[in-house]
Amino acid sequence: MEIREFTEDDWVQIWPIVHEVVRAADTYTYDPNLTEEAARGTWVQTPPGRTVVAVEDGRVLGTAKTGPNHGGPGSHIATASFMVDKDLRGKGVGSALCAHVLEWAKEQGFAGMQFNAVAESNVAGIRVYERLGFKIVGTVPGAFEHPTLGRIGLHVMYCDFG
Amino acid sequence: MEIREFTEDDWVQIWPIVHEVVRAADTYTYDPNLTEEAARGTWVQTPPGRTVVAVEDGRVLGTAKTGPNHGGPGSHIATASFMVDKDLRGKGVGSALCAHVLEWAKEQGFAGMQFNAVAESNVAGIRVYERLGFKIVGTVPGAFEHPTLGRIGLHVMYCDFG
Known about the structure:
homodimer; 162 residues; alpha+beta; Aminopeptidase; seven-stranded mixed sheet; 4 helices; 7 strands; 28% helix; globular
């Protein structure tokens, strides 16, 4: 598996992954009816942000986007999001993507990375993030309407690079 | 003082308020070089969001914007931002705007309101928010580069309507 920068040709493989994730509506706070155009606008970042893909034998296994979490006086903290092909989860793709964007953000001079909205049901993701240095800063109760679990908390997570 | 919905004619009075706030860069995570066009695009909300102004004798004293904090499974929680004319702070304008948008969000059926990035130096704002029912959910350390205080924390605050 190689992780490299997004190129235009990757989108045709990324969109089915994003589409499945947003329709499932069990991890991300995206509109489940997000159009392909809006998804592309959200997912494909330009500098100072970055979008990458994890690929193996020409197949896109997963993707990540990263960039400043806020503007101006908040722009020294990065954020990131990850999506992995439904059929390939639990094999370390998300973990490799997260490690990659952390490394990139450190190289770029960011002081830390924040996740704004991690559904507390996403225990596999949270375990990966914690192993890579993230801590739960706080939890907004009931802020995520899970399709089967009902209203659950959204964690704010942070990894300090200092 | 009356608080009412934004109309096109208000922008000419809102922009100097927004401009001063973003250039000061001591409360909000906006680019201090935000253009008027970008400011307008950010500040003037359309449904399901809303922008309001606090006016007295035709003068805009302050303004607020509100709407869903996230999309899809996070869209039942509102967020809001407030800006008050520099010369009129400490007179209850921000407090009245905050109470107004809380009332509006409750009427709209939101389940709570979240603030994503409250600079911990903004003690006057935090006092108002706490009096109106907000609690600090967590603090991201050093996430705000204050022009005189250096890197300080950004609070995530939440007010539950339940």
